[in-house]
Write a structure and sequence with these properties.
442 residues; mainly beta; Immunoglobulin-like; 3 helices; 38 strands; 5% helix
Length: 442
């Protein structure tokens, strides 16, 4: 548990008099700051604190709202909560869980932007009233945090969700060797950091049932190539691979941590990324022909771009491959032209079956156009007409596994074409009925 305060005056002239404590501030993470800054708050009271109205103000600026990501809205006694920054306001994403993959506590996101230089301040408010603050502080050095330890703020090692730890301040006087009559004792030296940097994404989105490609590159800290490296991958679901480029197929949706180790005869280093595996939730909306031949409209209803690299589009068994690095934008419908993929001359009929397949030939979804007939009826002596209405039948087929059967859903969408025969309205029919009733009365 982080040290609680009674009524203390501590370093930097900061006085605590609120129910919560700003216990740790990461304003200067190593490398890119975007989406990786965060504030930790601690509940030193004996009662739950509702954080649903929590806002944050930096350096006396406008208070910005916070949004819960995980763990709920209630901070229990002796509990911690993290407020993480966004990569950008438009993306709405944070990288906190990429840097701290084992964190499972209360997590909020907000459009905060912390200051790395000069004197600044933080105010945490609930329903407009300040409940925790740091009126005046200077940001810690890169990679360290401003941490509340034993009643004062100082430089700490990042420990989100747990007790603060002071940063090591360098060598001590014990580094000198000591000699006794029978032996000499040398101080234990820390092993040097491996001179290797592994380059890979922070996060990757994969599709359950499809092959996902992984790449890594390695150099020394000075930017020189390293010869003789071999790479071993662990994909977080029990799968493994080797090589600087490899692929893996996740069977189930979920969140996984992928690690890769680069090893040579003299050096070794490890890198990791978070892999978010999502279901292949796409649909074929329309199959038709236009000025430049046949085309297919494919919809991605998800809030993320979907990679369909090397997947296949088939017309009655004839396969056409989507190129590598093909993405379908989130929440959008993309038109794939036959002129680009090679199926422009394909004739679309009521018997045509269009499918999307994984590279493994497992079916993801299909589209089947059929026909139905509708009769208009006879009104005021106008002859009956028959109109053919195309009905588009879509089937969504999810990947199968040994313990899970495929889920199939069908959606019928009817497009009603305008009839070439002008029918009398209901009002005309009632007028005829009125005239007939007048004659019957006489």
């Amino acid at each position: 548990m982080k040290t609680s305060l009674a009524i203390l005056t501590f370093a930097l002239g900061i006085v605590h008099a609120h129910a919560l404590i700003v216990s740790e501030v990461m304003s200067n993470p190593t490398g890119d700051d975007g989406g990786r800054e965060w504030i930790e708050i601690y509940n030193e009271t004996n009662a739950d604190v509702d954080l649903s109205s929590m806002t944050v103000s930096i350096k006396g600026g406008t208070a910005v709202v916070t949004t819960s990501l995980q763990g709920g809205l209630v901070l229990p006694p002796n509990g911690y909560a993290i407020i993480s920054s966004l990569v950008s306001v438009s993306s709405g994403q944070t990288k906190f869980l990429q840097d701290y993959v084992t964190y499972s506590g209360i997590l909020f996101k907000s459009s905060i932007s912390l200051v790395n230089t000069g004197v600044t301040s933080i105010d945490i408010k609930l329903q407009g009233s300040t409940v925790a603050s740091v009126p005046s502080y200077t940001a810690a050095k890169e990679g360290a945090t401003l941490s509340f330890i034993q009643g004062a703020y100082g430089t700490g090692t990042p420990t989100p969700g747990s007790e603060n730890v002071a940063a090591q301040t360098g060598a001590s006087s014990s580094n000198t060797s000591t000699t006794t009559e029978n032996q000499t004792t040398l101080p234990q030296a820390s092993p040097p950091l491996p001179d290797i940097v592994l380059y890979m994404p922070y996060e990757k989105v994969a599709v359950a049932g499809a092959d996902t490609y992984f790449d890594v590159a390695a150099m020394t800290h000075s930017g020189k190539a390293i010869d003789g490296l071999s790479f071993v991958w662990a994909f977080g679901d029990g799968g493994q691979g080797t090589g600087s480029s490899t692929k893996h197929r996740y069977v189930y949706s979920g969140r996984y941590v992928t690690q890769v180790e680069g090893v040579s005869a003299t050096i070794a280093g490890t890198g990791r990324m978070v892999v978010r595996v999502v279901p292949p939730d796409i649909e074929i909306i329309e199959v038709s022909s236009g000025k430049y031949g046949a085309y297919v409209d494919i919809s991605n209803p998800n809030m993320y771009d979907l990679d369909i690299s090397q997947w296949m589009l088939t017309f009655d068994g004839a396969a056409f491959h989507f190129p590598k690095n093909t993405l379908i934008s989130s929440g959008a419908t993309t038109r794939f032209a036959g002129a680009s993929m090679g199926f422009a001359s394909t004739t679309v009929s009521t018997s045509t079956v269009v499918k999307i397949l994984f590279p493994s030939l497992e079916e993801v979804t299909r589209f089947v156009p059929v026909e139905s007939s509708v009769q208009t009826g006879i009104v005021l002596g106008i002859a009956t007409t028959t109109k053919v209405i195309p009905v588009q039948v879509k089937q969504k087929v999810y990947p199968k596994s040994s313990s899970q059967t495929a889920t199939t859903s069908q959606i019928a969408q009817v497009k009603v074409a305008t009839s070439t025969t002008k029918n009398s309205s209901t009002r005309d029919t009632r007028l005829v009925g009125w005239f007939k009733s007048m004659f019957r009365r006489q």
